[in-house]
Amino acid sequence: MNDTLYLVIPCYNEEEVLHETSKRLIKKITTMIKDEIISKDSKILFVNDGSKDKTWSIIEELHSQNNIFSGVNLSRNRGHQNALLAGLMTAKEFADMTISLDADLQDDVDVIDKFVEQYYGGSDVVYGVRSSRQTDTFFKRTTALAFYKLMSTLGVDMIYNHADYRLMSKRALDGLSEFREVNLFLRGIVPLIGYNHSIVEYERHERFAGESKYPFKKMIAFAFDGITSLSIKPIRIITSLGFFIFSISFIALSYTFIVKFFGETVRGWTSLTLSIWLIGGIQLLSLGVIGEYVGKIYTETKQRPRFIISDKLIISCKSDKL
Hints:
The structure is a single chain. With 322 residues, the chain is α/β, with parallel strands linked by helices. The protein has ten helices and eight strands. It has helices at residues 18-34, 55-65, 80-91, 112-120, 138-153, 170-176, 186-193, 216-230, 233-261, 269-302, and strands at 5-11, 43-48, 69-74, 97-100, 125-130, 162-169, 197-202, 309-313. Strand 2, helix 2 (55-65) and strand 3 form a beta-alpha-beta unit. The longest helix has 34 residues, at 269-302. The radius of gyration is 25 Å and the shape is elongated. The protein starts with a strand and ends in a 9-residue tail after the last strand.
């Protein structure tokens, strides 16, 4: 018997693309069911992340037309990573495998077959990796490359050029559910699960319609979350910098005493002012980075829910509960 596949698609203000997305996805899923690659119980699960437009209304409409479409409606906007996790944890109860992808049709749906092929070959996690970045601007290509290199330098295990287009088996999802942190960075968390994994390369397309949900400001915040959630090296760098500054200060202090001893008082208001500003700047920067970690610990100790589901539209032959 073929395994059940759930496609999990987080949505935030996607009314412009949702009809086209659903059209392409149902065509792919029905073809795979007909070819007996996946079970007839397979579904397309949209997760509405507190959209302000008609996204949820469209999901309800699609579900009423064909129960291959399912929906999860979050009580408010919780961000892409939490919305994705909400969909994955919901699908875990019904699916043998899930594939997460964006609603904007930039992820190539034609390679879904390859994901499933790798799954049947023994992979619990299959990463979708971009074969090139020709559709990106020079700035985006450069910053993306710098981000991956920085994460690697900081000891974070990530798949280069991989976003959130991935397949995960039920066993891998069970492993993911064991991670309890509130500040999610799934690109770095999923590799920590372990198990067999493989890679499928694909060409990322231009966005079908609408605007990107990740402007530069959000990209910076997302990258910072990834660094502070998965690496303690910044703290160790600060510690090393502290020792270095202390050594320099001790040498400077010794030099001052020597000059004073020989009666050669050095007057240098500029150098003194610059030193004060430099030390003050380093201290403030260090406190800021340390504050990020303290803030995350503070958030984690509250044990706040990562998402709250207000509605579900799911029909599954595997369960009578929903």
